Fold each of these.
Amino acid sequence: QLPLNAIKHYSDAHSKPPDLHFQYGTAGFRTLGNTLDSVIFRVGILAGLRSKRLDGKTIGVMVTASHNPEQDNGVKLVDPRGEMLEASWEAHATLLANASSTDAFLEALTALVKSTKIDLSKPARVVYARDTRPSGPALISALEDGFKALGVEARDAGITTTPILHYLVKAINTKGTNESYGEDSEDGYFTKLSTSFKKLVAGKARPDPLIIDCANGVGAHAGAKLIEYLGDSFPLVLENTTTSTPGTLNESCGADFVKTMQRLPPTLANLMKPGQRACSLDGDADRLMYYYLDERGQFRMLDGDKIAALVAAFIVELVKLAGLDSEIKVGVVQTAYANGASTKYLAERLPVKCVPTGVKHLHHAAEHYDVGVYFEANGHGTVLFSKSTQDKLKSHEPSTPAQSTALNHLINLTQLINQTVGDALSDMLLVEVVLAHKSYSGVEWNSLYADLPNRLVKVVVGDRNGFKTEDAERRLVSPPGLQTKIDDLVRRYEGGRSFVRPSGTEDVVRVYAEAVVKSQADGGSPYFIEVTETYKFAVELAFRVAGLVYDEAGGDPSRRPK
Ligand code: G16
């Protein structure tokens, strides 16, 4: 039996705002933090039920809004193997979050228990954490009320990064088994990462200090701990670490700022010398963007696509050196945001698949390869080694010392990489390992291929749900007719490509465009755009498509994107 009286008692203190609709989107619920009290309370109960459904396995709950502005917050659920909540439960989450009253909520819970055949006598176990957002403490107490209402055995992981929470979930659920993922503590996580990193860079030249822009978020805490574990092996300099000053989180810094604005966070401008590398994390440290200044002091971005190219090529090389290339196939997963040049570069070497935005889609597609490398252009990604690949690596008998070395490197990579989800710190160490092995600076890495000029624009519309896509989000099916207009526009640009999709984490429609040159026939543009010559046409195309989107959505002409 559900403890209906207890749930009712707590639920009355966390009533749903009457006029709001909540949706479990790309990365869970995400909206203004001060509207999320009832949602988070209900998620506490849902997480407990999910655990009961899975025979008492531990479920993760992360309270964060990642790259979103500071006033936003959100919550995502983590399944027992450390991956995102199974898609069919997203609908349950949305349904529970929108029940209009306590009675409606109790009814929805009872129906859920019945339809998903939950055995209520099973234990409910949850581990939870939050990022540094000011709305976090109040939302955590709503979550804890949810746990109390259902009688969940809850473990508080405190303020930590999203990928550390994913690590903990997997470590807890595999503890004592032959698939043990590591000690179920932050210490276990940092020890695992730093030990494998040190083995992988043993004998290599010590890299120059790396500047890390922590986005004024929880990555600053994790970065400081990582420094202790890495010791002398790799000097890190943390910047944008003010986690308690209101208004600073992700503000003019962080991975999303760098990717969208394609420039340095202003606070780093005076710190970087030509040739020096740096990287940015996002608000919960699951995304990573690299960059450097070239010899003329020009900003050069090394995004998720560049990370995928670097890492995939390295793993392919090691697999070959280990003598396993006929048995282990490496594949790459991208989204429509992947730069066209990266897709071309990778597809000439490896199988490449395109899926809709969202780590959950990339992760599942990557599981189909022996080694699946997935990165979103925004810097969110990881590498998955299938169970049979990991077994093969452990049992393979190398026939030469060179094979043995490559095999050991691969085994150490399986330890260094957080295979549960994108992890900025683990990915950063991975990048540094590859750069050390290849003796690459940012320049050589960047020259693997040349990015097509591109631009991402956000358009604020009345109702983003009116925008529906197909073909891995590359084409719009609704509003009707808009895709044809976009196609007409794109045809006027050489190397032109553009797509439009509703964001699943912010209340905007996103427009992406690539373009090299504009066709002569198109004439002048009504847009005056102050950017470097190279990017001019991509920016122009992006803003023209954004204009179409804006007109279609019936926006106020004075706020039309320009
Ligand atoms: C989340 C997802 C990512 C996605 C991003 C943007 O990232 O985990 O997979 O790329 O949102 O999604 P959308 O374009 O739908 O807003 P994060 O780092 O914010 O959790």
Amino acid sequence: MASPVVLGIESSCDETGVGLVRHGRLLGQALASSMDEHARFGGVVPEIAARAHLHALTPVVRRALDEAGLRLSDVGAVAVTTGPGLAGALQVGLAGAKALAYSLGVPLHGVHHLAGHVAADTLEHGPLPDPCVVLIVSGGHTSLLLVRDLARDPIVHLGDTLDDAAGECFDKVARAFGLPYPGGPAIDRAARAGDPRAVPLPRPLPGSYDFSFSGLKTAAARWAEAHAGRALPVADGAASLQEAVADVLTRKAVAACRAHGVATLVVVGGVAANSRVRALAEERCQAAGITLRVPPLRLCTDNGAMIAAVGDLLVRAGAAPAPLDVSIDPSAPL
Ligand code: KG4
Ligand code: ZN
């Protein structure tokens, strides 16, 4: 039997994403973001994000269907992020997904947001090799995972950040540097003109495969404060911060691959868009004989296609659908 079109909905933070996937192939996707509404607060405001999802969801579903040249009646299954994420934001996506699944009479699948980030890469590069190590680096997460079959095997957590996520570190230091929100892309742009050796910043390497970015964040913010009243060499600060983050991320990721005899590293999440993280990962993987997979930028940040991709894997693996009274799990463990 041909596999159905899976409609995926992502609404865990500030992006309302809808994607349509059939048998590993992305048919169409659309995205709305409330990022601009949060900019003046320097971070995502949960209440604003939830309201924005409510306004955006129906038009984004429509746009994704239009892009794919499909009608709602072509949808054969619905997948939705149930967690982790902001409670109010998740609720809106789940309510929309339930309504769609119920009215179309199709199965509903709840998806873990991080499994979505992992699966994003399959839409570009095909099925993931079993096993692979996945580094997820976003505004909310910095995790090293050992992944086997996404639809059947549990994901093994190798390490996590002990404090701030890497994206959070970029966002907060960018603020201290007077750069706009979100800070990651702003740091990336500013770093182009800077010297990565200009500012001595710590390269925190806590035990095993864990990470720690709060000391680095504080050191970079202190460096900025020390320039009070004088011009801040932002480009040098940005380049030095980016180098330190890229160094610890790629060092640990390659070490995890080596220790587990894994030949493929996948880097996903918003921070995978960082130019220095990408370049250093490429360099170190090549030196270690590891294949590096990084999805294109539009699939690196939050989107609905990645949730549809997991839904598609679940459907094809014959996973049991979620009951219609399934709840969100804002702090869902893996
Ligand atoms: O995956 P994502 O869209 O959302 C979640 O946090 O789940 O990731 C957003 C994060 C933000 O912290 C943003 O600053 C960071 O990814 N980011 C970047 C870049 N583009 C986005 N960080 C560094 N360099 C970039 N080019
Ligand atoms: Zn994310």
Amino acid sequence: MSSFVFRKGVLHAEKVPLPAIADAVGTPTYVYSTEALTRHFLAVSEAFAEARPLLCYSVKANSNLAILKLFAGLGGGFDIVSGGELARVKHAGGDPAKTVFAGVGKTAEEMEAALAAGILLFNVESAEELEALDAVGRRMGRRAPFALRVNPEVDARTHRYIATGLKTSKFGVPFEEAVELYARSRKMKGVRAAGLDCHIGSQLTQSAPLRAALTKVAGLYLALKAQKHALEYLDVGGGLGITYVDETPPSAAEYARVVCAATKDTGARLVLEPGRSLVGNAGVLLTRVLYRKQTPARRFAVVDAGMNDLLRPALYEAHHGFVPLVKRRGGKAVEVDVVGPVCESTDVLAKARSLVLPQAGELYAFLSAGAYGMSMASNYNSRPRPAEVLVDGEAWRVVRERERTEDLWRGERA
Ligand code: LLP
């Protein structure tokens, strides 16, 4: 089921025809569906209902305030990786007491802000970071609740750029060092061990690596409990994949079965950190065709969205569906590279697609663009970042204005 469907040949987000949004707001523009966001959130929370986990939406996937507010309203907590994301969560009305803080490079200032806000859990990724957190806690006369993020050293069988649980990865503490670090933490007055954490990678489409990692981590959790560490939370990270082309990731129910089966003996309160699975297929990026171009070697359609707006194809060779907002009648499909205006050879948003040749002025959508789309957008080539729109039934509103030219040099001095 999708909230983006063709009706009478026109692509709609819920009840809103997307050309109407493109004409009113311009392009490129990200459009999100409230219905899809809500349905994805509820699918996970209902699949896990019995376990009563804390569902901490991973803010990095899409940090728009309207989306954070929507998930906070559904009872969600948050998974953050920076002081900036903490500020966003607070600004959107999210609850720091339901928020977990990950990342290998938290600064003392970020730790202080999070501890002052009453964060639920610091997911600590190294011995030196634990010492730094201890120092912050002591300075503030508080014990910072922490979980060590352990590296379970399993191959998540995903793209190598987004696998995080390999032995060579910068993330997490080596599995064998965890016991000793928890033991050391007993002597630290500024921290208190409150949980255990792991995350093996993103866009997981198979359950076996997850099962293997969580089984290992659950065993460690029990060993730490046996050593009288007062752990309460088992954070299983995020990573559930979505369908971009023809992938068949586990359903929310299957995912819940695997997670719950692997962890039930621990008696821990589960923390989940889903990002992509909540927002990825709840968003599209609208773009307009500028030119067609043919060289002896290839046929191109040049569109007004570039790799600065949607980085995933350039960075990971990721595939996003590319469809016209108004279905074409007839016409012969040819092989086309859809490229952006950015001065980089990797600015190819859709490679070798079989399409009726797009025409100048025509509107298209890049599909499955709700996750790691706008949140990874940049101003490269001095391009203002896109607008964002949230649809709700027949209604829609701009939830982030298109950047203006003068925003490009805000804070600069000539
Ligand atoms: N928790 C931790 C500790 C993470 O590192 C991540 C993602 C998540 C949760 C959320 O994972 P998700 O449920 O979204 O898979 N930019 C890449 C993805 C990077 C993921 C980084 N970590 C992409 O566009 O595919």
Amino acid sequence: MDKTKVNYGVYLVTDSTPAILGNKDLTSVVEAAVRGGATIVQYRDKHSDREAAVRTARALLAVTRRHGVPLLVNDRVDVAVEVGCEGVHIGQDDMAYEEARKLLGPDKIIGVTASSIQEALKACEAGADYLGLGTVYATQTKKDTKSIIGTAGIRSILQALSAAGHAAIPTVCIGGINSSNATAVLVESSAAPAKSLDGIAVVSALVAAEDPAAAARVLLTNVAMGRVPD
Ligand code: TZP
Ligand code: MG
């Protein structure tokens, strides 16, 4: 995989808790979402022990490889190394970027969460491959979110990235995004022509969907309508 050619358009973040996943099987949900058009998958699991996480990551990797989309692991760099997936996503309170890079090597994807201009610039300068910006809107999926920054907050980060010469770094945003607001989020966040988002990251809009394939197809269309061409 060439990490510079990744499509961040419809970025699926998993959640295995009953409130979101229900009694469905996570691997089947991911398979359906990817079939429908999800372009990248992040395995996010705050509860399983290491052994179970490795098992699930391997099962998800079999699915994502079959469909040619990247699989990243949230927080747990050791799990990503063990299963050999395409990379990780780390937050501000997780392993430091430099340490993750040492463990993963130059070819893997490392994405970093940023909620402020300062965090975004720091991650860029460290060498992050993409940024996850947010939280856009309050969400039931992650109740401990520190900063709800709205589309205006996303736009000011994009403007700052562009002004600092980082217009090329891919960005997605997360938090409360669904098929009703995805296009508007992309349009409102855009600091075009200087910089706009590359995609939207969602948990419940796909994982809790009755038909994840259909939901992914709709999101893909929403993103196509909202994306501002480079
Ligand atoms: N980080 C910030 S908000 C969030 C994460 C992982 C959860 C987003 O979930 P949803 O269901 O897409 O609002
Ligand atoms: Mg984290």
